[in-house]
Amino acid sequence: MHKIEVPNHHFRIDQICGSGQCFRLDRVEDRIYEVIAGEKYLKIKQYPDKTSFYCTEKEYTCFWKMYFDLDVCYETYIESIDKGDTYLSKAAAFGEGIRILRQDVWEMIVSFILSQQNNIPRIKQLIRILCEQCGEERRSPEGRVYYTFPTAERLSEVEESTFREWKLGYRSRYLQETARAVAEGKVRLSDLSGMEYETAKKELMKLCGIGAKVADCICLFALHKLDAFPVDTHIQKVLEREYKKGFPFERYRGYAGVMQQYIFYYDLKNGVAMKEM
DNA sequence: GTTCAGGTGGGAT
DNA sequence: ATCCCACCTGAA
């Protein structure tokens, strides 16, 4: 099996895995991860100093390098952090290997519609059901079975009641209506990446089940609009606790979303650590 | 039994 | 505009 090796410069798969931006990236063995993006499958092995991508040179340069945003230097983002901002400095040091992925728009729309009032394991489970029921079965180079992410056209054919049987709950209607709207071309997904952040966000919010928070997640994790700063209940609490005078969005103009990820990951992992004490 | 988990839509003010 | 609350489900 052909593989590509890259140094781990501000790149940690486990951190990306735990940052909640991707629901189809999983650790399958020690150091080994698998990710499915749209129709594509990739096996990854990450050592302390380097990462092996099990794919061809072409697949790496044309897709995965871009997908993991490996052309961008995240050290620059981290170095720009206000040294007097102890909380953000600690958060960034803790999650320094996080990268903002460039995921598929439709996949993020569905994933974050399902994410509301839901936890990560359950979101993953719901996505797994959708892929197994409506995606296409494929095999990895090593023969592992996986399922592609179902298209809007395919999901628009599914009854709302069927989604409810699959335990999507009240999100069933949102998904049904959004899949239909996208399949009918009411919102043209291919146009979104060319739009400014605010415009793309407004366009996304035309879809049923997509409010400000979900739209920001889609802007950040699919459209790579780094201005997007999704505020969920977790981030809200951190802002109230650590930034009573307001978060310095001006200072991080153009990449506040990267800071959001450091904060989110830091808060999420510390929350778990606290519970285990 | 209650609350909460990475919110949103719809209706009342 | 802003507030309020119902909404599916499963786990603590």
UniProtKB/TrEMBL annotation:
Keyword Lyase listed: yes
The record's Pfam families line, in alphabetical order, gives: HhH-GPD (PF00730), OGG_N (PF07934)
Matching InterPro entries: DNA_glycosylase, HhH-GPD_domain, HhH_base_excis_C, OGG_N, Oxidative_DNA_repair_enzyme
Q: Which SMART domains match?
A: ENDO3c
Every copy of the HhH-GPD domain together lies at 114-268
Which reactions fall under this protein's catalytic activity?
Answer: 2'-deoxyribonucleotide-(2'-deoxyribose 5'-phosphate)-2'-deoxyribonucleotide-DNA = a 3'-end 2'-deoxyribonucleotide-(2,3-dehydro-2,3-deoxyribose 5'-phosphate)-DNA + a 5'-end 5'-phospho-2'-deoxyribonucleoside-DNA + H(+)
* Family label: Belongs to the type-1 OGG1 family.
Annotated protein name in UniProt: DNA-(apurinic or apyrimidinic site) lyase
Organism for this UniProt entry: Faecalicatena acetigenes
